[in-house]
From TrEMBL:
<keyword id="KW-0067">ATP-binding</keyword>
<feature type="domain" description="ABC transporter">
    <location>
        <begin position="458"/>
        <end position="660"/>
    </location>
</feature>
<dbReference type="GO" id="GO:0043190">
    <property type="term" value="C:ATP-binding cassette (ABC) transporter complex"/>
</dbReference>
<keyword id="KW-0813">Transport</keyword>
<dbReference type="InterPro" id="IPR050095">
    <property type="entry name" value="ECF_ABC_transporter_ATP-bd"/>
</dbReference>
<feature type="transmembrane region" description="Helical">
    <location>
        <begin position="98"/>
        <end position="117"/>
    </location>
</feature>
<keyword id="KW-1133">Transmembrane helix</keyword>
<dbReference type="GO" id="GO:0016887">
    <property type="term" value="F:ATP hydrolysis activity"/>
</dbReference>
<dbReference type="GO" id="GO:0042626">
    <property type="term" value="F:ATPase-coupled transmembrane transporter activity"/>
</dbReference>
<dbReference type="GO" id="GO:0005524">
    <property type="term" value="F:ATP binding"/>
</dbReference>
<dbReference type="Pfam" id="PF00005">
    <property type="entry name" value="ABC_tran"/>
</dbReference>
<dbReference type="InterPro" id="IPR027417">
    <property type="entry name" value="P-loop_NTPase"/>
</dbReference>
<dbReference type="InterPro" id="IPR003593">
    <property type="entry name" value="AAA+_ATPase"/>
</dbReference>
<dbReference type="InterPro" id="IPR003339">
    <property type="entry name" value="ABC/ECF_trnsptr_transmembrane"/>
</dbReference>
<keyword id="KW-0472">Membrane</keyword>
<feature type="domain" description="ABC transporter">
    <location>
        <begin position="212"/>
        <end position="443"/>
    </location>
</feature>
<dbReference type="Pfam" id="PF02361">
    <property type="entry name" value="CbiQ"/>
</dbReference>
Amino acid sequence: MKTRKRGLSFLSPRVRLVVVFTSGCLYIFINNIPGAILFLLVGIVIYLVGENRNWKLVLAAPITGAMMFFYNVIFSARGHGGWQWLVFTVNQAGFERGLVMGTRIIGAMLISFAWLLSTSLPEMYEGLSWIKPAEPWVLTILRGVQIIKREFVALTQSLIIRGLKWDSPIASIRNLIPLAMAIIPRVIDNTQKGAAASLSHTRTKPEGNGDLILNDVHVRYSPLLPDVLTGINLRVDGGEFIYLAGRSGSGKTTLLRVVGGIISSIMGEFMGSVTASGMNTMNTSLAKLSGSVRYISPDPFASFHGLTVGQEITFLAENEISARRTLEIMGIGDLWEKEITKLSGGQQVRLVLAGILASTAKILLFDSPMQELDPQGRQEFLSALKDFLVQNPCTVIIADPFWSEIKPFVTRVVTLEKGTIAQDVLPGEFFTEEMLSRYSLLREFRPPMSVIPGEIIAKMDNVYVELDGTAILNGISLDLREGELVVVMGPNGSGKTTAMLTLAGAIKPIKGNVKARGGVGYVFQNASLQTISMTVNDELSFSPKIQHWDSGRIEAFVTEGIDWTGLEPLSCPLDLHPSEVEMLAISASTAGIQVLILDEPTIGLDADGIAKVLDLVQALIQKGIAVVIVTHDQQVAKTASRVVIINMGKITYDGPVVNF
């Protein structure tokens, strides 16, 4: 049943914008007390009848008004009598001026807050898009706001989980310092990603037949950093399906980026020549190249330019019919109007893949497209890809650990070792136990030694959660015991991450109780979103310092983390390989905890990396720490003693893995 809209929500986005613009004009021209009071009353009414009200935010209005009043009073205009001292003057004229200024600014702020709280970013775009010359800029700015909002929410959640308190205005102001230091470099980093997404969403006619030639290619990301790829020579004929293999850090992502034009249009630099579908990537704009070559980043959010699912897919499809059809194929046809930031990680991947299926590119470059998909999502994607290749023959290069599901498509395998091509072979020569083991692709893991679970140390009791008015969790009850390894599974968008963030204290339920004895550590699905500090050393010491450990204990914890991750203490997390960031986040999250939650920890890791994480899990459960792994990887699930299935915000199974 639809709820009746109230306040500004009742109006269309454009009419809401007119209301705000009109209030801005009135703010300028109202210069008497009766008019200011009437304006304030209008602002109060508009704010109070709105659907969404934020009382912490609204406090800024009277505080600002009081400051404006005080300023005008103590700096009254001279020549009207009154009291004077040094630079200060107080008189009746200043009092009246301050009353007008303070009152009208409160009214204007209340109307502005009502607009902000009732208008989503897509609606703001709709309200402003009629200004055609400014439309691209409006979209770029609002997309930037969307990215900053995502970073702000993730970093705030990370700080809460790590133990920073936000229970007073002074604490909140103090916490803004590490938050600002962490978010500024991320904004700069996301500017690059946003530029790539913007250019790649320009529809251009595809050229060539999908052939590819790399001649003596050397790639680096900075003159201060070593080459990531060295002497790459590769020729691919149009229509080939190539599986790209290599251990973590071998250069797979970099090779796909240089072919896709991301290097050097957006980041990094290379020597040599790359010709993709008849175009020299060095001399071809990314906007033009993207019509023929499509690169899919391992971070799906970085691939978006639209604000909503419908807007994103419309940029890439020929028409709305085609757009809606590809969304249906990927199982997200009902999310047309949903904002990008409100999608789960798996839903974001489905949207990116839907965009690929709607394209007419001659070369498709997939960087780990299936790691965040549930088993059904992987089947749907590969089935759709099969049909797509029949109708639109093109070249495919894919790097993904789920090789067994990709194997039937593969016509050729290229492997990388330490930035160079080591093997260029037929599928039959590669898909053997010896070769798969060599490239860390055998995903069979030894279960940790069983530990008899102890007392309950964390509990969710009949928990309900709503986000932006949408019910996400519907009565979740879950117990965790000392030394227990639990795997949480379920379809994309089922509420798994929300449930675990609620258990960790980052999200407050609207109903039910959440209790934990001791700290709860959490590693995000995208670990790069939670790193706070600018060096590995500072990242590892961040939580211990919050918990007021003594210097000796902090030094020992940092040394242990450095040894386990193998990272340089002064390395910047923003410059690390995704697998290294994952390891850093895991190590940093183990400070003073009783529960550790790992959300999709296998993403970006090869089999050796996953085995290393499971060895750490073994050590933790032996210490009596409960570990929860959220995953779609069934091989990882087999290592647990208990599995919990969440679907549509409810637990549908909670029991032994053997029964599951």
